[in-house]
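User: what does the whole thing look like in 3D?
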Amino acid sequence: MANTDLAETDLEFVTFSAGGQSFSIDIGQVREIRRWSPVTPLPHAPDEVLGVMNLRGSVIPIYDLAARFGLDRTPESSRNVVVIAMHGSQTVGLLVEAVSEILSVGRERIQETPDVRSDTARQTITGVITVDEGMTRVIDLAAVVQPRGKVAA
Amino acid sequence: MAPQSSIRDTFFEECEDLLEALAEGLAAMAGGARDTDTVNAVFRAVHSVKGGAGAFALTDLVAFAHRFETVLDAIRSGTLDLTPEVMHTMQRSADHLADLVEAARNEDVLAPDVSESFLANLDVCLGAEPEPFDMGDTPFDFAVIPLDFGNDPAPGAPAGHVIRFRPRQQLFANGHDPCLLIAAVHALGPCEVALDLSALPDWDGPDALTPGLGWTLRLETQESATVLQEIFEFVDGLCELDIVPLEDALVPATLPPAMAAPPPPPAPGPEVGSPAAYGAAKQDLAPGGESAEARGPKPTLRVDLDRVDRLINSVGELIINQAMIAQRLQDMALASDDDVSLHVEDYRLLARDIQEAVMAIRAQPVKPLFQRMSRILREAAEATGKSARLVTFGENTEVDKTVIERLADPLMHMIRNAVDHGLEGPEARRAAGKDGTGTIRLGAAHRSGSVIITIRDDGAGLNRPRILDIARRKGLVAPDADLADAEIDGLLFLPGFSTAASVSNLSGRGVGLDVVRNAVTALGGRISIASVPGQGTEFTISLPLTLAVMDGMVVSVAGQTMVVPITSILETIRPAPGDLHRVGTDDSLLSIRGRFIPTVDVARSLGFTDPSARADFPLLLLVEGENQSQCALVVDAVHDQRQVVIKGLDSNYGQVPGVSAATVLGDGQIALILDPDAIAAHRASPAATAVPRPSLFHPDVHHGQH
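Assistant: Here's the predicted 3D structure for the full assembly of 859 residues, as structure tokens:
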């Protein structure tokens, strides 16, 4: 019985590293993981929007997760991968340095985001989970891809 | 109650068709048509609505349709003259009927006094006491409708004949075979044959030679009775023959019990204008091609739009896939007569065919849209006390369904506008030597890959001094600005601009022509205006045929491949060194055929400022924005022209300034589709010149509050 209870409260996350930090996203939102391929840049786009790529005929915007959190843009590397994730009916790609693992944790292990100074972090990270060597940040996909303010006209 | 509700849905779908037929018939009558076919078609439409409504116990609808029908009957029988007043009442009643149907569909109830006033108007037509109406007997009261259909039945009725045939002895004596005759009848269409044994003589009786067999043939056909009579010509006088139209025969009472036809198949009656019944009229062989074509709708299939869209998406992928394969082959540098190349070329043609066919599924005639406008016109005319008529042409022009849907509101507004602002009052018109009734012409036509919609009134034309005056007062133009006529006309499209001297019931709703223009632009179309003082104003809307593909010019901008819609490109220019003239630090003008046209650096306008990617010899694309304002876009190179599948950016990302959509190129990469209007308008963003003229047509400009 205890096992069943545990299973019900267990949450699964895909964790990955971006800008040298560990982030994670609910596995239910992840559609697939793809190799990086060149994108078409969008005009007047914020820094973290690298451009759009073709995913089987759909036009998908690719966000540089590191840049989204104010870190340096992810350097080009053959190890880079794109996490294709869905938020509602919106499909987006997140460029990360590498996907680490799939994490299965009980709900109680997710801690609220401690009071940090960065607005971005407060708005886009819903919690943190301690893992062996440190912690991973659970991101709120909706907040990450939300257009910030008005783009330059 | 799923089955019930689906029958109900079918009823309302049919109502749409019936109301359309009604509007069409009334429009023909208003245009002077008095033939029985037209009047019958109108009558039948109302009657069918009533019949269906009765089955669903939609009391209001039935009561109104009944009264409407009574008036139409009086017109049909000639006891009521179709005066302009009566005609007006008929049209308004048709509008009200549509409202009632809509209310019934939404399970709303209209305010009873509204119906009362319409009913009263109908009674005035009859000039009689209001007719008592008993709902109780309606639902199943499918009384005989004595319509003279001749050989040209109205849609909704199964056409055909009931033939009662009883050979006499002489027929057999002459060597005729009833079987062959029946076969000949059968050849004309679906036919039910019933054997009538009632007159069979007593086998033991003395007169075994008297034939006892008779047949009742129920034939569905478009052929006239004459054709049938020809079949039986050779047995004329040798048999008892009785040919009656199927219509009449449907009423059992007219059949002698002994000869009763087999029960008609489910719901063939005129009361339920089933799709099958529409289909039956398809092979209308009646002479006079056009009217037959107009009246006999082709068989159609109602398909869930999602299915069509899924198909369209897949076909889009197919086209892209084909382009990719073609490009790979090209890279492999195969001989051009290589088998594979030839097959891929076939593939390309096939894919195009499929695409065109699939696109055609979404295409619909603009007719229903135009018909709705005649109602808008009537209401507008009533509200303003003006007299106006709508003349439509090109109603069968087909346009993408989405385009039609999204065009409804702008068009409605423009019709109101034309009545409210365009037409003069009757006195003013007569004083100007015109017909007191204004005419608004609404038309559609295909022109080189676009649909052109024109709305033209024969009113007073634009009052340009007044427009300019208002624009100056509202601070929309500089007081000393000297504008050309076309530019003054263009002021009407500025947000918040309204020339109505008084706020009428129609205007003053905060909807201006700028909204119309935005709606048209959002569809990838353009709107322009032309006006001749004293003769009227014409709006021209140019729209793409479909929202899914378009012809584009593939260009390079700052190292990126992009697509510019062909429709907006007037020409491509490779400027000679002396053709470009710098103005200040950033702007330059192109001199072409003695005119100076502003240029816009596309790369800079998009914020791509990679100097290394700058071409030494840029090319110019001359584009025309709204209101004939021209501008030259600077690009690095022009590659080729091709059809591209439009992919929206909105669903996964959002709007991008200067970019209307994206497409997938042959190599799988995404190319952005530029919006030349937005880029051209962008030129005059805040930092730009103090001259207000170029910015006049920018949708984002808000000079001052109004």
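In plain terms: Residues 10-149 of chain A form a domain with the OB fold (Dihydrolipoamide Acetyltransferase, E2P) fold (CATH 2.40.50.180). Residues 2-9 of chain A form the longest helix (8 residues).
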